[in-house]
Design a protein that fits this description.
Immunoglobulin-like, single chain, disulfide bond, 3 domains, 2 helices
Length: 287
């Protein structure tokens, strides 16, 4: 930062001062700060320079000029601006559905930064099993409308973002943005919302004797559900009576490789996580 003071041909003495401390008296450097140096001293100007300016340099600088007639002073006020930087941010959060969540974002900078929050990447709206469990497009559209309303626009113009009774639609990545005249800083926090399983309605399946068959059970849950299969009230284990259970994420398949008369009947799929469970029934019948 340069400080320039106009001179004249009748100047006898001149000095630059900061908070009553002399920085330069003419060509003589009084300041012990190595960042302060003389740029020019001649009939037209008396200019000094401070390099690598920081917050401690802010304040008033005075150029005192002694002439044959009278002394004059010129003052300059130095305002130091600092880029914004986020210095305190909530960690990633894992909560159960229905909990209250508060996120905090604090930033430094000069001028003081303004802070805002927004949800930038909610999970994809769950549409699993809609075609099988809902009748007609009208119901499906209604469900999507409800999801949109529940999700809402989650924003805050404050260092705090408060979410009351959080729903699964409000899980996702939240971005804090801090802005001042110099710069912008952004950081993100992930919110995971846990909820009990919901299974899509089971479809009855007809299979000819001796053929292959499969029952599919799909569960929406966070954390992902564990699956159990039952025939009537008896639990089925992998490899039991030539049946195989294949679990991949949110889907569990009960597979029959050679359907016999004894395989026909009622089956139940149970999806479980630490928040609860849900089940659905199937009928395997002969064709």
């Amino acid at each position: 930062s340069n400080f320039r003071c106009a001179q004249g041909d009748v100047v006898t003495h001149t000095a630059w001062l900061n908070r009553s401390s002399i920085l330069y008296a003419g060509e003589d450097k009084w300041s012990v700060d190595p960042r302060v140096s003389l740029v020019a001293l001649n009939q037209d100007e008396f200019t000094i320079k401070i390099e690598n300016v920081d917050m401690t340099d802010e304040g008033q600088y005075v150029c005192a000029v002694q002439t044959s007639s009278r002394p004059t002073t010129t003052s300059v006020h130095l305002i130091v601006q600092v880029p914004t930087k986020i210095i305190n941010l909530s960690r990633d959060v894992v909560v159960n559905e229905g909990s209250n969540v508060t996120l905090l974002c604090q930033a430094s900078g000069k001028p003081e930064p303004s802070i805002s929050w927004k949800l930038i990447s909610p999970p994809e709206a769950e549409t699993w099993g809609l075609s099988t469990q809902l009748e007609g497009l009208e119901t499906e559209d209604l469900k999507k409308d409800t999801e949109r309303q529940e999700k809402g626009d989650i924003t805050s113009d404050d260092e705090y973002l408060e979410i009351q009774t959080i729903s699964r639609q409000k899980a996702g990545t939240y971005e804090c943005t801090a802005v001042n005249d110099i710069d912008t800083d952004t950081q993100t926090v992930d919110i995971t919302v846990n909820y009990a399983p919901t299974v899509s309605e089971g479809r009855d399946v007809g299979v000819t004797l001796g053929q292959r068959g499969v029952l599919e059970c799909e569960a929406d849950a966070v954390p992902e559900a564990d699956f159990e299969w039952y025939k009537d009230d008896r639990r089925i284990f992998n490899g039991f009576d030539g049946m195989e259970i294949v679990n991949t994420g949110s889907l569990s398949k009960l597979m029959f490789f050679n359907v016999s008369e004894g395989d026909y009947g009622n089956y139940t799929c149970l999806a479980i996580n630490k928040l609860g469970s849900s089940n659905t029934s199937f009928l395997l019948f002969g064709e």
